[in-house]
């Protein structure tokens, strides 16, 4: 019996399996592709499971945590992150959330508007502390032609770069906040190394220009990410053999003090670090034919792997046959009472029958936490964390009772 079949039999399906060895490999790969003495933030959004976050934190050159809610803060703390190593981001931080973070010891925020900085400042001052605020920048122009683009157009994220010279004076002398750097996150899941490198180059040029124009003392320069990984389809992580040298050259040019930590340069990644560590196992509940078309009905759909389906971005998943080649066309659908519960429409599939198990590869990022978990009232999928052949933990995201 295969390892996955064994786990499916032991724990049932739908079942996520995450392998910590693969998480560790991804971290090493990414750190090796980045210049030394730079920092890497793990965006818990990709997978907030504390065991995965802990794996990314631990070890010699571990990740810091990029968080965006009280829940992610709790997950980061559960994973052993020091609150001082967390960067709190997001365009809609409430005073209550900021208060929770400051009380826990978070001192570094990425801010997206004047209101946001003032709110952080006020809450921090209320706690008798001063918070470091990075200004998130919505740059004027954008380079890479592909991937998920976040800047260069009207956005809830960041300050419009052209407005910063007039806005910055409003933010300089707030008692509870210190403007201590810049944050860029222009791109997610870049298509290739060349476009990623070009994006970083442009970001660095813009950052240098802003520093000059604003006479800003930048302690931390977070230039984002865009490191790629497959999502529910076969394949491997992006490969960046030249990136490090190119980044070093670009940094030497724009920020000659970076090797001595002036500024400290940081990167961010979610999917690269966890995507390939995850495999989703689903059971086939039924196979039916309707007007000549075949439907394979699984015991999990967009409720367990709904990643961004609401955004119309769901890519058809691939399932790996237990043996043999694809033999028929069919739609792969979930059990929910909505025609939208489709994981793949008219795709090539192995011959499947009720009781079979299918595996969806590369589902370690944007899995359960990005799914329509509560829709139709099915339990969240079990998540099994393994290290090689050892089972480390078994858990599921659950409701928390907040009132008696
Ligand atoms: C979502 C997000 C990330 C992670 O993106 P990936 O594509 O998963 O690497 C990093 N930083 C910020 C600010 C984000 O919003």
From TrEMBL:
Residues 25-275 form the Orn/DAP/Arg decarboxylase 2 N-terminal domain. It holds the Pfam family Orn_DAP_Arg_deC. Its cofactor is pyridoxal 5'-phosphate. Transmembrane segments: none annotated. It comes from Streptomyces hyderabadensis. Gene3D superfamilies: Alanine racemase, Lyase, Ornithine Decarboxylase, Chain A, domain 1. Residues 16-364 form the Orn/DAP/Arg decarboxylase 2 C-terminal domain. Belongs to the Orn/Lys/Arg decarboxylase class-II family. The lineage of its organism: Bacteria, Bacillati, Actinomycetota, Actinomycetes, Kitasatosporales. Keywords: Decarboxylase, Lyase, Pyridoxal phosphate. This is Type III PLP-dependent enzyme.
């Amino acid at each position: 019996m295969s390892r996955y079949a064994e786990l499916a039999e032991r724990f049932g399906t739908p079942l996520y399996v995450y392998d910590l060895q693969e998480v560790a490999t991804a971290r090493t790969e990414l750190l090796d592709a980045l210049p030394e003495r730079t920092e890497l933030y793990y965006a818990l959004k990709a997978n907030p499971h504390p065991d995965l976050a802990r794996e990314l934190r631990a070890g010699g050159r571990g990740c810091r945590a990029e968080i965006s809610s009280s829940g992610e803060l709790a997950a980061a703390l559960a994973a052993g992150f020091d609150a001082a190593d967390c960067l709190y981001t997001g365009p809609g931080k409430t005073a209550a959330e900021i208060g929770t973070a400051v009380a826990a010891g978070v001192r570094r925020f990425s801010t997206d508007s004047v209101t946001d900085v003032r709110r952080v400042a006020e809450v921090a001052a209320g706690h008798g502390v001063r918070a470091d605020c990075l200004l998130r920048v919505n740059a004027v122009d954008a380079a890479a032609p592909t991937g998920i683009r976040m800047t260069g157009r009207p956005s809830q994220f960041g300050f419009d770069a052209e407005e910063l010279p007039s806005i910055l004076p409003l933010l300089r002398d707030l008692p509870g906040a210190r403007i201590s750097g810049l944050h860029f996150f222009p791109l997610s899941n870049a298509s290739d190394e060349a476009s990623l490198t070009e994006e970083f180059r442009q970001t660095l040029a813009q950052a240098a220009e802003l520093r000059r124009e604003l006479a800003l003392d930048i302690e931390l320069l977070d230039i984002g990410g865009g490191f790629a990984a497959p999502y529910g389809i076969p394949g491997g992580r992006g490969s960046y053999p030249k990136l490090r040298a190119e980044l070093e050259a670009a940094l030497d040019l724009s920020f000659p003090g970076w090797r001595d930590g002036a500024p400290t340069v940081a990167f961010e990644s979610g999917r690269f670090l966890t995507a390939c560590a995850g495999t989703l196992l689903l059971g086939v509940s039924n196979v039916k034919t309707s007007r000549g078309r075949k439907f394979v009905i699984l015991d999990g759909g967009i409720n367990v792997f709904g990643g961004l389906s609401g955004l119309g971005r769901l890519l058809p998943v691939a399932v790996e046959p237990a043996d043999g080649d694809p033999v028929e066309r069919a739609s792969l659908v979930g059990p929910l009472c909505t025609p939208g519960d489709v994981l793949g429409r008219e795709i090539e599939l192995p011959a499947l029958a009720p009781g079979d198990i299918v595996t969806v590869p590369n589902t370690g990022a944007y899995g359960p936490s990005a799914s329509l978990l509560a829709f139709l009232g099915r339990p969240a999928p079990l998540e099994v964390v393994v290290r090689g052949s050892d089972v480390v933990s078994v858990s599921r995201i659950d409701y928390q009772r907040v009132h008696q």
